[in-house]
Amino acid sequence: MSKAKKEHYVNNKEFLEAMTAYKKEVQQSLKKKKDKPLVTDYIGSCFLKIANHLSYRPNFINYTFRDDMVSDGIENCLQYLDNFDPAKSSNPFAYFTQIIYYAFIRRIQKEKKQTTIKHKLIMDSNYDDVALQPGDDAEFKNQFRDFLQKNLKMEDTPIKKVEKKVKKTRTRKSTSKLFN
Questions:
Q1: Contact, 129 vs 94, CB < 8 A?
Q2: Fewer CB within 10 Å, N- or C-terminus of the chain?
């Protein structure tokens, strides 16, 4: 027995037809010097479906800011919609999936950077001034301070590691140019 073909959530052929039709409308509006037409509901729903399904992948599913990632992905799709050329590629699904994927990665990097900043602020701040009111129990203050220091210990963050790698590669390239 043969397996039944699995129905995809975005039909690539229909998506390509919608994109070519939209590109023609954009070109006609530019010739007439009018505003660009609005994106069709079908194209918008395809962006939404791609972003939602990509957010359920194992490497993206456990983030609390998954809705922000989906929003960033759709925003980037709308931003780079005019860059898709049906003459060069017949796979808009793959094109926009890549755009959404990298939008997700950028959002994760932003959130990690913000988390790092929050942790450093907590570590550098005076705990008595920030979290506790005057007249609180001194034993509780010490326990709270110990808890924060144990759980918010920041080692070398991924952001710093990336910066170090970039600096190393730049110095290698610059020194190799000197000797050639």
A1: no
A2: N
Domain tally, the chain = 1
Record the tokens describing residue 48, joined without a space. Answer: 């939404």
CA atoms within 13 A on the CB side of 73: 30
Confirm whether 171 is domain-assigned: no
Number of H helices, E strands in the chain: 7, 0
For residue 151, is it within any domain?
A: no
Q: End-to-end distance of the chain based on CA atoms, in angstroms?
A: 65
The DSSP result for 129-148, as a single string, is: HHT--TT--HHHHHHHHHHH
Report if residue 142 sits inside a domain. no
Question: Residue 174 carries which side chain, given as an amino acid letter?
Answer: S
pLDDT tens digit sequence for 62-81: 999 999 999 999 999 999 99
